[in-house]
Amino acid sequence: MKEQKPKKFSIKMQKKLLCLYALIILAFILLSVRLSWIVKADGATYEKQVLSQQKYDSVTLPFRRGDIVDTKGTKLAVSEKVYNLVIDSYVMLSRETYLEPTMEALSANFPDLDMTAVRQYVISHPDSSWYVPLRRLTYDQISGFQAAALEDSKIKGVWFQEEYKRVYPNGSLAADVIGFSRSDNEGQYGLEEYYNDVLNGTTGREYGYLNDDANLERTIKPAVDGNTIHSTIDANIQGIVEKYLKQFNEEHKDAVHPGNGAENVGCIIMEVNTGNILAMASYPTYDLNDTRNTDALLGSRKIEMVTNANGYDVLTKTDTYFTQEDIAALTDDELLDNLNYLWKNYCISTTYEPGSTAKPFTVAAALESGAITGNEHYQCNGSLEVGGHTIKCHSYRSGGEGDVSVQDSIAWSCNVALMKIAATLGKEEFAKFQQTFNFGLKTNVDLAGEARTASLLFPVDQMGSADLATNSFGQNFNVTMIQMITGFCSLINGGYYYEPHMVDKITNSSGATVQNIEPRVLRQTISESTSAKIRQYCRATVMEEGGDRRTGRTARPAGYAIGGKTGTAETIPRKNGEYVVSFMGYAPADDPQIAIYVVVDRANASPQDDAKFATGIVRNVLTEVLPYLNIFMTEELSEKEIQELAEKQIEITNQYTQKPEDGEDQNNGDGTGDGQTGDDQTGSGDGTGDAQGGDNTTPSEDWRNYPVDPATGYLVSPIDGGLIDPVTGADVGGDDSLGDSPVNNNLLNQQNE
What we know:
It is built from 22 helices and 30 strands. By secondary structure, the chain is an alpha+beta fold.
């Protein structure tokens, strides 16, 4: 076999290889030239394109949710700036000298911080810049760390993210009205929910961008803070109402069964001629700063989900009254169901049968329609047969009320008379006036959660004679508290139905007014003449003689004439011994300025059908609220009433007086008052006055210690020898007419203040 000779690298092949090398070198030269040209001509543009693909953080700037204030500017809800502590691992590890000083500063200034967990996170996440170990710190809590960071330049990788925390300075005050907001600025219940969009602002943002020199710069789009809402609530009146609701609970809790003093107790105070709500509260309540505190459930009945006869799951009250052990056994869902029930506003969201507080509405409808004139009389024998049913009056055991006038039908709360009036009115007119007074419809009060009661009234085509009869005195149809008091205001203010509202002004973060919310008349329900008669009848219910027949007499505060009507409604199922009692009234009797409505739902008492549970609260509240509103006393005080006012530490400096007109001084310049009480001339003109009026009532309680004149039985003033009535404290003359006496001048000065 022949040995093969290796092929020679021919000249031709060498030339081809040389050409290939030359072409490659030329390509590199051309590419280098091209790159150089690009860098010189368009380098900045391409640099921006590259840099723009890198990550630059944009920071969200939070807005401040608007405040909620009362009618005098007292802050009810505010937003305070707080800080979240953020760990930036990338920066902290960018140099070896940063880690330990930063860890030491964190440990020294934040004792609640788990430093082991922080160190572990930083080491295991070297590229992270979003670890938030502490939230909602106050400025005082972070100021120590910030000072340390300024002193030591090696403390790096920690910064504070700003946000706002909702705070309620008065705790539980007006909780039903205000509601609360979550951490995401979403309002829940009350004004917080209804005006959520008004209270919320717009978040801002801080952006990173590159300028013409390819340097990173930042721009800020500032946040827009939310608006402030100015409520009609008066925090002082609200506090008085809540004080007496709580007092009622303390007096009656655990009386018959374990638990609160009643299932619910509610109160609304409204301006008669505007629809402004001055106070709205119910008990039990809760702390707005700690809405999930389960202590607020103690004493309430447990709510649980059950399937009703129609196959629907509904929340129903059980017979269990919460103890700590019961609360601890709740599941998360059960706890939330019960808290939601607690957070609801009883005054607008719960329905009930109004009872006899509905009687003025029935009488007003009959008067307005012409069905009666007001001069009629009815015979009450204690019961009435209607539609095959025997319907009783509260006086049936004593044989009835006998002869009952239209005024007496309200003042004595006679069911039989009301049934006869309703029969004369007819079901068509009755149903028409129910709608006129807004029963069955929402009042559109500016609060979240108002109930609609359309399905809880009898339509005309389904209303039988017995239904009409029971409806006439407030049974067999349901209402809400806000419906009742709003309609009642129209009964006594000349017939003008004002839309109830909680807010009268909205301002922006600079204090400029964005919107004024004026009182709004929706309709006229009755005429002025009918309204005057209803005022007369309701005044008689409280003020006229008649012993036990005057159902509202226990609601009258010392020194004042008021009008109103009590209500007692048996709950369903009937004959269970459970009642809702109430009182709805107004003051002053002759010139209504405010209306008050108190409802006590199933008092913890036996028996429950006692309107005094409601009238007692009304009396206590009005005793403090009326002087606060500068509504003057007009009625003679008994010794017991004087003692009551003394115990409440309420000075009797404005009794028996008429509020002076603007610019008019009660002091006539000669030391004597005008002695007027309303339209009655009770002063004598010589500065002496009498027990019924005048301006000479001693302004303090010191007169109680004056010596007694054995000849007259009057007290003798050691200052001037004047005689003082030992019951009322009124000056009745003596050795000095007191026209220019120090005592009289001092009194007049106090009255004019």
